[in-house]
Design a protein that fits this description.
Number of domains of chain A: 2
Bound molecules: thiamine diphosphate, magnesium ion
CATH superfamily of chain B: Thiamin diphosphate (ThDP)-binding fold, Pyr/PP domains
Structural class of chain B: alpha/beta
Shape of chain A: globular
CATH topology of chain B: Rossmann fold
Oligomer: heterodimer
CATH class of the largest domain in chain A: Alpha Beta
CATH architecture of the largest domain in chain A: 3-Layer(aba) Sandwich
Shape of chain B: globular
CATH class of chain B: Alpha Beta
Strand content of chain A: 15-25%
Largest sheet of chain A: 7 strands, mixed
Number of helices of chain A: 13
Strand content of chain B: 5-15%
Order of helices and strands of chain B: HHEHHEHEHEEEHEHEHHH
Structural class of chain A: alpha/beta
CATH topology of the largest domain in chain A: Rossmann fold
Number of strands of chain B: 8
CATH superfamily of the largest domain in chain A: Thiamin diphosphate (ThDP)-binding fold, Pyr/PP domains
Largest interface: A-B, 35 and 37 residues
Number of helices of chain B: 11
Largest sheet of chain B: 6 strands, parallel
Helix content of chain B: 40-55%
């Protein structure tokens, strides 16, 4: 295999590069969102307004329902809108065009249209932003057939998957963890994409499988380092896309280790972890040596207070103790 | 002439000026505390917009309701919210109004008719319609005032709320503080009309634009709207033109890339406190006395907040269900 040249960039720079490259490659790609035209507001969209002009990098009024519905229309009419929701919490105002329209139109109209729309939804807690500015809501959207849901956890996946999402002919919810924006990592040079629907092993191991989504893929990697010091060899797998979910990719690891912890930042009940646990046990029940354990946010809103917030949210330590519990 | 329409006594005018000072000094103090890392979560200050909050709330009874936004310290204080508990909320204490769950963006003091600051832009307007509906059922002449920004006037909820309140003739006052920006977005770019009050026409309700830097002018237009609402004649839309002197939020610099120092200086010359001193005829001695009293009140509030206990771990489960 030819050696791939990489350089180290941040998660937000990776997103920024993907947007630059795809706008360069395809003039049908355009952006809409609140405060995206001025570079200072988000590093993910910095420079795009200057580079591509305000026709294609469109600042919107605070009208989430309006501009999301407009994006669905523009997508039907042959364009490839990419939306910036600032926070997934604000996207709740636009559920109708996402769930009732974008996800269903192609099916409902007998295949006459496709909706090549990407909705970038930054999310996550840990910054004392409180109940309405900390939510992780990707689980809601795996209940909506017709959408793709992608959750990258490092710069390389952020870039490669965003480029694939923009080229995808279906509506994609692209979830970005704000806490990962400053995370640095190697990203291949050139026109680099990652396939939608494939899990990735982020660390190989043989004793236990840690499945982590978004911010928790990072925590699982940190947990695997801590566990290694105690002689526990954990494998870390990141589903990367949760619709479609690469059940075989996840089950393959569990068949090897026989034990599994699933970590996510969303709430535990009805979460992505619940879906993964059910799918993995259907595929690999015979290989499981213990019940699957979920680490997730408690089933309460995320409070502002630092200490209360830390109690509610999952963490590396919580992953470590779940893993140890399974192995004891 | 209804009670609302009686001319303002000297005492009430002084009280209005003092409330403006209380807000200014509370927010300056909160911002300092924030910069020292003592505040939990973010804050959005309304410094420069005190003429709006005080002009509007000075027309209300304790059993009237307000709802506000992420930039709600001013309205909270003007409606009588308890300062020590408000300060405690900013510092993340168990004694805080929201028990350290909501922070600055969700200050509420329902005992004083303050139904909350709401951080999802536009979310407070439909709820104000509902409170107005409850007041209509109650028949006691109460009114609900909802404060929101120029940016919020572009949410669908604004339009749906105006229409609902209009067809049901509800006692709701939609009070738009047009501070000319929604984060980095200038109102002229984002808004279809030059005056947001013009949108009232589409809903067949009164709409007025007023100088938000002039507390008395705001008071006067509010008196009209409150009187209408109490008499069962329905909602009004008030737009107060104003300016925020600080950045949008914690990370946004004072001038930002979206406005010039020159523009800022023009608005600074119209500081609502200076305007109030002039039109209310506040003397230097009076000003000094007010400032001293406000400082004492603030120091007491801060002492209370600092001495208050942190929440307990089990508090995360408190108040989720009734
Ligand atoms: C539904 C929703 N969209 C976006 C945001 C992010 N946001 C918070 S404040 C703000 C600007 C609000 O502008 P305006 O209504 O004029 O109020 P101001 O900040 O000027 O007081 C934005 C976009 C939000 N909180 N809620
Ligand atoms: Mg504004």
């Amino acid at each position: 295999m030819p050696e791939v040249k990489t350089r180290t960039i941040s998660y937000s720079t990776a997103i920024n590069e993907a947007l630059h490259e795809e706008m360069e490659r395809d003039e049908k790609v355009f952006l809409m969102g609140e405060d995206i035209a001025l570079s200072a507001i988000s590093p993910a969209t910095a420079g795009l307004g200057d580079r591509f002009g305000h026709e294609r990098v469109r600042n919107t009024p605070i009208s989430e329902l309006g501009f999301t519905g407009a994006a669905v229309g523009a997508a039907m009419a042959g364009y490839r809108p990419v939306l910036d929701m600032r926070r997934i919490d604000f996207m709740m105002l636009a559920i109708d065009p996402i769930a009732n329209q974008a996800a269903k139109l192609r099916y409902m109209l007998g295949g006459q249209v496709s909706i090549p729309l990407v909705i970038r939804a930054p999310e996550g807690g840990g910054s004392q932003n409180g109940p309405t500015h900390s939510q992780c809501l990707e689980a809601w959207f795996i209940q909506v057939p017709g959408l793709r849901v992608i959750v990258p956890s490092d710069p390389a996946d952020a870039k490669g998957l965003l480029k694939s999402a923009i080229r995808e002919d279906n509506p994609v919810l692209f979830v970005e963890y704000r806490a990962l924006y400053s995370l640095e990592g190697p990203v291949p040079e050139g026109d680099y994409t990652e396939p939608i629907g494939k899990a990735a092993v982020k660390r190989e191991g043989s004793d236990i499988t840690l499945i982590g989504i978004g911010s928790q893929a990072r925590n699982c990697l940190e947990a695997s380092d801590l566990l290694a010091r105690e002689g526990i060899d954990a494998e870390v797998v990141d589903p990367r896309t949760i619709n479609p979910l690469d059940v075989e990719g996840l089950a393959g690891s569990v068949r090897k280790t026989g034990k599994c912890v699933i970590a996510e930042e969303g709430h535990k009940s009805g979460g992505v972890g619940a879906e993964i646990a059910a799918s993995v046990q259907e595929a690999a029940f015979g290989a499981l040596k213990a019940p699957i354990i979920r680490v997730a946010a408690l089933d309460v809103p995320v409070p502002v207070h630092t200490k209360l917030e830390a109690i509610v949210l999952p963490s590396t330590e919580k992953v470590v103790s779940a893993a140890k519990k399974l192995l004891s | 002439m209804s009670e609302d329409k009686a001319p303002l006594s000297e005492e009430r005018m002084q009280a209005m000026y003092r409330d403006m000072l209380r807000i200014r000094r509370f927010e300056e103090t909160a911002f300092e505390l924030f910069e020292q890392g003592e505040v939990m979560g973010g804050i959005h200050v309304s410094i420069g917009q005190e003429g709006c909050s005080v002009g509007a709330c000075s027309t209300l009874r304790e059993d009237d309701a307000i709802l506000t936004t992420h930039r709600g310290h001013g309205h909270s204080i003007a409606k009588g919210t308890r300062l020590p508990e408000m300060m405690a909320e900013l510092l993340g204490k168990a004694t805080g109004l929201c028990h350290a769950k909501g922070g600055s963006m969700h200050i509420a003091d329902v005992s004083k008719g303050h139904y909350g600051a709401h951080s999802i832009v536009g979310s407070n307007m439909p709820m104000a319609v509902g409170i107005g509906l409850a007041f209509h059922f109650e028949g006691k002449g109460q009114v609900a005032v909802v404060f929101f920004g120029d940016g919020a006037a572009n949410e669908g909820s604004f339009h749906e709320s105006l229409n609902l309140a209009s067809i049901w003739k509800l006692p709701v006052i939609f009070f738009c503080e047009n501070n000319h920006f929604a984060s980095s977005t200038r109102v002229q770019y984002a808004t279809s009309v030059a005056d947001i009050s013009a949108r009232a026409g589409g809903y067949d309700i009164p709409g007025v634009t007023v100088d938000g830097m002039d507390v008395l002018a705001v008071h006067e237009v509010m008196v009209e709207a409150v009187d209408r609402a109490r008499r069962g004649l329905g909602p009004s839309l008030i737009e107060a033109k104003t300016y925020r002197y600080f950045g949008h939020s914690r990370k946004d610099p004072q001038f930002g890339p979206y406005r010039t120092e020159e523009e800022w200086n023009e608005w600074k010359a119209k500081d609502p406190l200076l305007v109030a001193e002039e039109i209310l005829g506040v003397t230097e001695t009076q000003k000094k006395a007010h400032l001293d009293a406000v400082e004492d009140e603030l120091q007491d509030a801060l002492a209370f907040a600092r001495q208050s206990p942190e929440p307990e771990p089990d508090d995360v489960y408190e108040d989720l269900y009734a």
